[in-house]
């Protein structure tokens, strides 16, 4: 993360979010690794007769692609890489903290939209299944509220850190 103050002893909440971030990074790597399999099968079956054309590969690729995008966005917020653009000239540490707080508030606004709309989106898909593989659609739709809640946790943590810098309480 960028310019986040180090704490003497991390709180239990910080330990939980750090573990959660590690889990997300692991899931992202596994998701990308597994995504290669159905996509490769699709490509090979399209252009050769070596293997039959499997229907399930398209839906598996779609499910994995959506989840890797959402998990990648969650990790990006945690690492302060997503939604972060350096457009300001060199600012003082406190001014930079104020700008970052504003940026994090924007992330929180998006996160609330993802949570509220995502819960409704998931409810809509709760009893529906995918057309080809008959998989429950809520498995895809739940990615939106999960991302929203995750952004709230990670951006909230960063806002607390930036507020400490803004008011001169950071080391």
Structural overview:
This protein is mostly helical and 171 residues long. It has one domain. It has five helices and no strands. Helix 3 packs antiparallel against helix 5. The longest helix is centred in the N-terminal third of the chain and has 36 residues. The model has no long low-confidence stretch (mean pLDDT 87).
Shape: elongated
Major beta sheet summary: none
Oligomeric form of this entry? single chain
Instruction: Show unreliable segments.
Output: none
Overall mean pLDDT score? 87
Instruction: Write the H/E string, N to C.
Output: HHHHH
Share of β-strand residues: under 5%
Put simply, the count of helices is 5
What is the structural class?
A: mainly alpha
**Radius of gyration over all CA atoms, rounded:** 20 Å
Q: Give the % helix.
A: over 70%
Give the distance, in angstroms, between the N- and C-terminal Cα atoms.
16 Å
- What is the domain tally? 1
From the structure above, extract its key features.
171 residues; mainly alpha; 5 helices; 70% helix; 0% strand; elongated
SSE layout:
Blueprint: H1 12-47, H2 56-78, H3 93-125, H4 138-141, H5 143-166
Helix pairs in contact: 1-2, 2-5, 3-5
Q: What is the compact description of this entry?
A:
The chain has 171 residues and is mainly alpha-helical. The protein is built from 5 helices and no strands.
